[in-house]
Here is the input.
Amino acid sequence: MTKTQELLLFIKQAKICRSRDAVERGFTRMEIAALFKAGKIERLARGLYQVSGAPVLPNQSYVELAIRCPNAVICLLSALQFHNITTQLPHEIWCAIEGTTRAPKMTYPRLRIVRFVGTAYSQGIEEHVIAGSKIKVYSVAKTVADLFRFRNKTGLDIAMEALREAIRGKKATLDDIRKMAKLRGVYNMMRPYIEMEISS
Here is the structure.
């Protein structure tokens, strides 16, 4: 097997490959550029490649984000979509980063970045493996609480719908929802809506 064939196989097995990872495995950027020029691989974003004609992965944009910014956490409307709680398809990826962490740059899809500090960032993170990459996304309970916290940006109606679907669809326990609501400082506001859902 030639070095070019080895590189192509490496990219194919990775599904989405960072040029940095290929270089660390002993391949050169010139070899990557040659494959790209020959049409064997396609560039998804700066430094991200996949084999030409490869099928689109489930949640591929989230995989690309996870590869480029491992500490970014899918949140708010995008987390709702990930957990199949909403039929809405956000035109941008909502992601959380911690404090003053450098924001990731992606031309497509567009990112909507929110900054969380301390436990607001670290609590409620789930890890899901897709195509060998770990995607960080907030739990359903954390997402519902965050939606109430950011209701002026995302809409109170969406927060209420998410709470209703989380409870009725048993996607989160009441204890977890209450815990995250208290963590995010919105429990007193959410309590009437929680009680209404319990009694309905």
The two ends are 65 Å apart (CA to CA). The mean pLDDT is 86. The chain has eleven helices and eight strands. Residues 156-168 form the longest helix (13 residues).
